[in-house]
Amino acid sequence: xxxxxxxFVEEMGQFLAGLGMTPMAGRMWGWLLICEPPEQTxxxxxxxxxxxxxxxxxxxxxxxxxxxxxxxxxxxxxxxxFSAPAEALDSMLGSAASIYRQMRSIAxxxxxxxxxxxxxxxxxxxxxxxxxxxxxxxxxxxxSRFFADRKQGAA
Length: 155
Description:
- The protein is mainly α.
- The chain folds into two domains: 82 residues, Arc Repressor Mutant, subunit A (Orthogonal Bundle), CATH 1.10.10.10; 65 residues, HR1 repeat (Helix Hairpins), CATH 1.10.287.
- 68% of the residues lie in helices and 9% in strands.
- A three-stranded antiparallel beta sheet has the order 1-3-2.
């Protein structure tokens, strides 16, 4: 792994850690996004990331549950292979609207719970609600446009 690739892998580790995953999950996903060949065994990944195979196995479960990693096998080979398939990003993008809808719904319940308070004291929550409602409407449109552009070869 080159120093630039290593820096990318570490940055992805820190980024996903900031989103609630483990740094190793980010590092593994980052590696699977750039590695050659694109399918790697647990031993390959452990060697590249200077990690134990146990750490890779546990991390593969986390990433698999999140839909970011695909597990596969090959005839006559007892090893599992891991990859970061393109459709993982499609799934992540597709679920974005659901996340914003949930946050908007929570904000609505918060607004209902504080309905007796002065408008000024509810302003932050109202702003949060309004932003989530806007993003909930707009993100699916942007994602649809992305998929259409990609299908036409423009993405």
